[in-house]
C-alpha cells in the first residue's frame, strides 16, 4: 500500500489527488486481478496500474496546466527555517509535485521508472526531443527549488 | 549540498526511497463503497442481456397468444360442430339402444337433438351483424322429417336465390315423424307418408301413387312395426323408407314463388341418400359449411396488397468493442462513457403482398436517423489521411478531423477541450421479409420478421468548442452499409375495408458491424414502437 501511495504522490499535484489516483488504481486492481498472470511480482503489476491511472489523470488535467517557461518561473520564497539544516523527504516530494505536469511526468518516468526518452515519447505521444527538453527543464526547476529551499524559501509555480 | 545538486536524480531517488506515508482512512472507505457499487453495477450489466431476451420472449408470447386466439376464433364453429356431431352420435346410440325396446321414441329424441342444435346454430349466425344471414323465419320450416325420413325442402335454396343470389343455403327445422304422422303440422298440412315395405329395394325408387294424391296407403315401418294411415294431400311421388334407411330428399329447379306453396307441391325429383352415408351430423356439416362460405365472402380484411406509411421511435443501444485503438483517446470505455444515444426516429413506407394464405412478403423503404450526444472531452491533434495535423475526435460511430482556424497547425498530440459534440447519422433502409396476417374482428395482427439493408446517407459530427467556435466534419470509419434484422408484431385496426391504423412494437438486432477501420466496432440494437396508416387494395 505504502509504495503504491508513494508512486501516486510522485505523479500527482498534491496529496488529495494522489489519494484519488490510489483509489482508482486499487479499483482497477480488484477489477482486473484475474488478468494477473503470475509471471512477475504482483507489486510490479500493481505499480504499472497505478502509473496508468496517474497517466489518465494527467491526460484529463494537463490542458489546465500550461507548460511553464523556466526562464519566467517565478519563485516565491517561503520561510522554512528547519529545511535549511536538512531537506526532508516530504519536502522533496512536494517539489516534484509542484513541477508542471508535463515535466513531472517525464521526470518520474525517466528517473524512477528508468524509461528511455524514446519510450517516454511513445507513451506520452510527444516527440523524443520534447521528452529530453522536459526532463532538462524539470531538473533545472528542481535544482532551483532545492537551492531556494536550502535558502529558506519555497518554490511556487502557481 | 551543492554536490548533491549535481546529481539531482539520485537526491530525489534517495528521498523517495526513504519517505514513508500512508493515505487517509477515507481512501479505504471510498474504496469499499465503490467496490460494492461496482458489484451491483456488474450484476445489472449481466442482466442487461436478459432484458433483450425478455423483450424477444414477450413479443413471441404476445404473437403466439394472439395467434391462438385467432385460431380459436377461426375454428370456433368447427369446434361447435364437433360438439354437435358427438351429441348427435350419442343421441343416435341412445336411439338405437332404446329402439330395440320401444318404437318411435328414440328416433324422435335423436332428431329433436338435431333440431335443437340446428336452431342454435341458426340463432348464432343470425346474431352476428357482420356475418348475417338474412333473417327468414320461413327457413325454419323447410326440413320436415316424416317418420324417420328427412326431407330437405327446396324452398330453402329458392329463398336465397330470389333475394341476393349469394347464398344457397338455409337452416331448417326438423320435425319428428311423430309430429307429422301423429298430429297435423301447421306448416305441412296434410303431409302423410305412404306405406313402404321393403325399404332397401325401394330406396330411390318412386312409388306408385295415385296421380290425384288422394289415395291412402298404410305405412308399414319394418322396425317399429307401427302403422299409420295415408292422408290425402301428400305428394304421391314421395317414397317411404324404413328406419334402417333414412332418406333425404332434395328438390331442384324451384322458383322463389314456390316458398309460399305447400312443400308437398314443390317436391319433384327427390335426391335419395342412404342414412348410412349422410347421417344427421353430416347434414349439419353441410349447412354450416355453406354458411362458412358466406362468412368468408363477407370478411372485412383480406386484401392482396397493403401499403402503409409509418413513424417509429426507437431506444438505441450500441454494443462497443475494442477494434484497433491507434491512440490513447481511442479507448473504447472512454468513448462509451462520453456518449449517450438519443431516441432514434424512423419514417418509411412499407408494402406487403399476400403470397399464400395468410402468409405475405413485405418490403419498403425507410429513413432512420441516429443522434448521439457526446459529452465534454479532449480532442487530440493527429495526422489525418492527407498527412496534415488536425484535431481528431473519436466516437463509437467513427472519427472526424477538425481544422481549427483560429490557430496555426497544432503540434502533434496537442489537445483542446470541447464543450459538447453531436454525431448525426442517417441511413436509408430497405427491408424485406415475411409476415403472417390474421384477423380478429376488426383487428388485424401481423407478426413479421424483416431483414434491413441500411445504406449510409449522412454522417457528420458537430463539435462545440466554445460559444463562438463550432466545427463540423464528416465521419470516417463508418461502413457505407450494414445489415440488421427486425422482429415485430403489427396490430392494426380496420377502419373500413381499405384503411387501417396500426401500432408495431418491434426490436432490431444488428447482423453486422456499422463501423470499419475504426478504433471500436459498434453494433446498433434497438427496441421501439411504430405507428402507421395502411391502405389495402
Structural description of this entry:
The complex is a heterodimer of chains A (158) and B (537). Chain A has 158 residues and is mostly helical. Helices cover 66% and strands 0% of the residues of chain A. In chain A, helix 1 (2-11) packs across helix 2 (15-31), helix 2 (15-31) crosses helix 3 and helix 7 (117-124) crosses helix 8 (128-150). Helix content of chain B is 30%, strand content 32%. Chain B has eleven helices and 21 strands. Chain B has helices at residues 2-6, 8-18, 25-74, 76-99, 105-127, 155-163, 177-182, 199-202, 263-266, 280-297, 332-337; strands spanning 143-145, 150-152, 219-220, 227-228, 247-249, 273-274, 305-322, 339-341, 344-356, 359-374, 378-383, 389-394, 399-402, 415-417, 420-436, 438-440, 443-464, 470-474, 481-494, 499-510, 520-536.
Short structural summary:
The complex is a heterodimer of chains A (158) and B (537). Chain A is an all-alpha fold and 158 residues long.
Structural class, from helix and strand content of chain B? alpha+beta
Spatial strand sequence of the major β-sheet of chain B: 7-9-10-15-17-19-20-21
Q: How large, in whole angstroms, is the Cα Rg of chain B?
A: 42 Å
Q: What's the rounded overall pLDDT mean of chain A?
A: 76
Rough shape of chain A? globular
| Helix proportion range of chain B | 25-40%
Average predicted confidence as pLDDT of chain B: 69
The structure class of chain A reads: mainly alpha
Q: How large a portion of the residues of chain A is in β-strands, by DSSP E?
A: under 5%
Distance between the termini of chain A: 30 Å
Tally of helical runs of chain A: 8
Output the helix-strand order of chain A.
Answer: HHHHHHHH
Q: What gross morphology of chain B would you assign? A: elongated
**Roughly how many Å is the radius of gyration of chain A?**
16 Å
